[in-house]
Design a protein that fits this description.
eleven-stranded mixed β-sheet, 441 residues, disordered C terminus, disordered N terminus, 17 helices, globular, alpha/beta
Length: 441
Amino acid sequence: MPPKDSDSSTASGPRSKTTRPRAIRRLVIWYRRNAAVTSLVGTATNSASAAGNVAGTVVSSAGSMAGSMLQPLVFDPLRRLQSSENNPEAEDIKNSDRLWVAVDGMGGDEAPGPILDGCLKAIQRLPLRIKFVGETEKVLGAVQAMGLTELFNQATAAGHLELVASGPSVGMDEEATVVRRKRDASINLTMDLVKKGEALAMYSAGNSGAMMASAIFRLGRLAGIDRPAIGALFPTKDPTQPVLVLDVGANMDCKPIYLHQFALLGNIYSRDVLQVARPRIGLLNIGEEECKGNDLAIRTHALLSEEHRLQFAGNCEGRDVLSGAFDVVVCDGFTGNVLLKFLESVGSVLLDVLRAELPRGRRGKVGSAFLRSNLKRIKKRLDHAEHGGALLLGVNGICVIGHGSSKALSVVSALRLAHSAASHGVMDDLAELQKAPVESA
């Protein structure tokens, strides 16, 4: 007998009636068996199209339904920035709402190209105007090389981007004190724009030591603060509520009074920017009991317990940092930097582990189709570089430090952080600390 055409086989063929449902049932059985894994990877929205290629339009519609149900449970504040290149909300941004932010265009491993690319994307998505500080020839060369000419000209013509010429920049491998010799370096001119009030915040992905030195020399420390601290946002079990950890690298050797001041700074930042009504402050330690830890931890615990300007929630063990039980975690810069670098490795390791645990063969390929995009999102969520940057707290200005390898998305995220800090009156509240300075110890 001649073979039946596709329409007749779909409508009347007895074999085709059972083949398709059987394939769907196999996928459902596989999905249920791997529920423990799929519960870790968030929404199944992007999985719908991959599943549709394997099992047809019925599975595709089922995946869309699953995506609509699971999406609210895994909301990520940066998901809007990561999901698409075009932001429909950008059309609603009024020029009167745009805030000036200064950007060190020469800071970063591959600057100025990726930094400029991120700034142009940020202008489209966020209510910002950017003063881009950099060596003119190198910046214009990057515009041509990366095909950004049209966007660059549009942003400049609209008054959303201003190129500020600088002298030779500070290299990533140079000593921090070089900022005193290279007075017209991009990092120094960026700080000057904040000091003069021509920008409300600044961002740099360059030499972090040089940035701290420049911030102290140009902006100065807040009264009552002995040492500025670098505060980084770590993810928690609740995607909408990260935890602020400080210090993560500015001060290797700390006194109890420094950690006390870090707690005051973190409390204000968490309250104003992260919108936590009463932040829970934790002290990183090896145990919950107040008698645990080294001399630094024990003495700091006593200081924080007596501080009425914040809610001290006690010691925070390492396993509790990402639990969501604390809003701010305080530690010395050595410990914090080790914690930060460890977290940076978790994303890629977790991705490799999950890939290795997926079933192999035909079922494994179907499972990979379901989970591939979501596994990548897990890695991004755990990668600190994807959160843009860390805030330098304790200086007289809003400074955001970016990762040296920052790409466009990281720059957008960091500028979002800078805008949030500038628009929530952080500096006004930090100035209140000057009225009741903490005595050095």
